[in-house]
Design brief:
Length: 381
């Protein structure tokens, strides 16, 4: 007898709602400490030196600006070994050089990939429950990850040591470092909104409690004094509280009337140069907004052709912002010309499941990493 396949929303709810026995806070800390000891011995098989820049990247750094103009990938150049056993939620290249690639998965692991050398996973860190997001800190020496075990971990990549842990009251769904201050990061949750943390004290400094729905993504404004959030909140055929701008000092919403269509958004990205940001909508398009008050929706231009279908699909800009790329519920990767919003390339069957994330390399202008719901990670160029 065939088993009924759950929708992505119901599958995630089922994952969250598993009944667990009560465990005291003290016992949780003891368990976490024992797990960390295991992680440092069992999951750090190969040394990592972030100061070692692969030859291909160092050569590209010496190129003239004219030769650095972004262009589209032509083929799959690296199909990394499938080591994740469940879907990959997020990818992130290491800082400004992109020496290594990190991936976060529903299987409870964060993996570090040597893409340009050994072409394999060189380190694994475990949360033992689904990991929803992963981010490098501002000096790219440490990696921040968080998920369903309600702990954000700050990990020193070279040594493999877990520097700090940040305990949350609910599932962690999104992470972002403040671009103007290396000591602060924001964490979005499935309930109770967003917490701002100070890594120097290991304590929260602010919490945005007046929140609507589960946080799907975060994006700081350029000044670092405001933050954008998008959630899964939709009510009465309107999503007027879906995208919200918050003031960090007062923890109050500056505007919640930005996107008023009856669809939630799964991801947001700030334009590298223009005063704009884009949001991936469950209406199967990427919308454009102004980055300054009143954060107006561009009703004349959108990027459509891909399918979202309720999956946490992300989108990202090329380094020169000439192109915008998006994942797709049918396994393809879509590339759009940002100026015209036209589709300029589609990589079909990039993944056997849903294509969740797509991310341009910070130096190699035609190199793109992608991740799928089947657990695969690929590099195109």
């Amino acid at each position: 007898m065939s088993r009924k396949r759950l929708s992505p929303q119901n599958a995630e709810i089922a994952e969250k709602s598993k009944v667990r026995a009560y465990v005291s806070k003290r016992r949780k800390i003891e368990i976490e400490e024992s797990r960390q000891e295991i992680e440092l011995t069992d999951t750090s098989p190969q040394p990592i030196k972030l100061s070692d820049i692969p030859e291909r990247i160092s050569s590209a750094l010496s190129d003239t600006p004219a030769s650095q103009t972004g262009f589209l990938p032509k083929r799959r150049v690296t199909h990394l070994p499938k080591e994740h056993t469940k879907g990959v939620n997020a990818l992130t290249w290491c800082g400004e050089f992109g020496q290594v690639l990190a991936s976060a998965s529903m299987d409870g692991s964060v993996k570090i990939w040597d893409v340009f050398g050994k072409k394999e996973c060189v380190r694994t860190f475990r949360h033992y429950e689904a990991v929803k997001d992963v981010r490098w800190d501002n000096d790219t020496s440490k990696l921040l990850s968080g998920g369903y075990n309600k702990l954000a971990k700050l990990i020193d990549i070279e040594s493999g040591a877990i520097s700090q842990t940040f305990e949350h009251p609910n599932f962690i769904t999104a992470l972002r470092f403040n671009p103007t201050s290396p000591f602060f990061f924001a964490s979005g949750m499935s309930k109770d909104g967003v917490i701002m943390w100070d890594v120097r004290t290991n304590k929260p400094i602010n919490q945005f409690r007046k929140f609507w729905g589960s946080v799907n993504d975060l994006e700081f404004l350029p000044t670092g004094k405001e933050i954008l959030t998008c959630s899964d909140y939709v009510v009465r055929n309107a999503a007027d509280k879906n995208i919200v701008v918050w003031d960090l000092d007062s923890t109050t919403p500056i505007s919640n009337q930005i996107y008023q269509e009856a669809y939630s958004c799964t991801a947001m990205r700030r334009h590298p140069y223009k005063s704009q940001f884009v949001a991936q909508s469950n209406a199967n398009y990427v919308a454009i907004f102004g980055l300054e008050k009143p954060w107006k929706l561009n009703k004349r231009k959108r990027f459509e052709g891909h399918v979202v279908n309720g999956y946490p699909i992300r989108c990202n800009f090329s380094l020169d912002a000439k192109y915008l790329a998006s994942g797709d519920a049918n396994g393809s990767i879509f590339f759009y010309d940002y100026a015209s919003s036209n589709i300029v390339k589609v990589i079909e069957n990039a993944h056997s499941g849903v294509s969740i994330d797509v991310l341009w390399h910070p130096v190699l202008k035609s190199v793109v990493a992608t991740a799928g719901w089947e657990g695969g990670v690929s590099v195109w160029g």
